[in-house]
Amino acid sequence: MRIGIGIGELSGQANTVDDVVADARRAAEAGFPSLWMAQIFGYDALTMLALIGHEVGGVELGTAVVPTYPRHPMALAAQALTTNAASGGRLVLGIGLSHQVVIEGMFGYSYDKPARHMREYLSALIPLLHGEQVSVEATGWKAVGRLNVPGAVAPPVLIAALAPRMLDLAGRVADGTVTWMTGPQTLAGHVVPAITKAAADAGRPVPRVVAGLPICVTDDVDAARQRAADTFAVYGHLPSYRAMLDKEGAEGPADVAIVGDEASVAAQLQVVADAGATDFIAAPFGSSGDRRRTVDVLASLPRA
Questions:
Q1: 15 pLDDT more than 70
Q2: Mean pLDDT lowest for which of 10-14, 16-20, 176-180, 252-256?
Q3: How crowded is residue 226: how many other Cβ atoms within 10 Å of its Cβ?
Q4: Is the distance from CB of 36 to CB of 281 less than 8 angstroms?
Q5: pLDDT computed for residue 169 by the predictor
Q6: Which pTM value belongs to this model?
Q7: Among the residues of 176-249, which ranges form H helices?
Q8: Angle of helix 114-129 relative to helix 73-87, nearest 10 degrees?
Q9: Are 228 and 254 in contact (CB under 8 A)?
């Protein structure tokens, strides 16, 4: 299992552009194979990764994830290809549905039939990323045309897939999934078997399973778990994550966070790997000292 690290909001800090680029450079120099950015309510992830990719070499750059509803597939494809051209082909495009409270409550779009939306979206996005002409009539939008971004290659596409229909789609059409707040029992018993079977049935390669979790190396486990409960409380109430926490038998996000001293954290990461995750996104949290210790420990672990 490759251990990558979250930057920007996934790092547990809100930094300036220069700070994020500096963090990315330090992570690359420390040997992390991949850096991941979330698209939440701060920086535009793809714009930031294009900047990082142009300034920092030798590391994979992933979005975890970019919501689809606010971006027409032709616009997202153009932005992704531009980012990939700027970074020398190192982008992994993670996309997702976001949540009904965001899509309807903040953006004013319908969240009706989200799996259908993703299926239609991918029918335009993936060919566009490969420079193909598309003519797609979808629900509420259409995409007609093709893109030409010199020097760009199509990035792999991961879907934030948790429910069965989404995992099937991710396996059959995309290159894998990226999860959040999904524990190792749920990965092993639900996510990995479903997406792997879908990919095999479609004759596609074994998919990537990129698992993201909060992580804190600390000597005060109880305090860290309480901090996780407070910091990540919202994820315990969003339906898609709540369903995964229930599958895990977890009361809330604090119960799936990876917390402990160096040996304990290494052992917990091995459990995630044994569950079938191909990649891990570390989202450090805690005090500034805890975060530094966490990053140092992760950087010291053997590379898969």
A1: yes
A2: 10-14
A3: 12
A4: yes
A5: 98
A6: 0.96
A7: 184-186, 192-201, 221-231, 239-248
A8: 50
A9: yes
What pLDDT is recorded for position 14? 63
Fold classified for 1-159: TIM Barrel (3.20.20)
Q: Cα torsion for 80, 86, 89, 93, to the nearest 10°?
A: -20
Contact by Cβ (8 Å): 35, 61:
yes
What 3-state DSSP class applies to 134? strand
Domain range annotation of the chain = 1-159
Peptide bond into 295 cis (omega under 30): no
> What distance, in Å, lies between the first and last C-alpha atoms of the chain?
6
Amino acid symbol at 235: Y
Helix axes 262-274, 288-300, angle to 10 degrees: 60
User: What digits encode the pLDDT tens for the residues 74-106?
Assistant: 999 999 999 999 999 999 999 999 999 999 999
3-state DSSP assignment of residue 180: strand
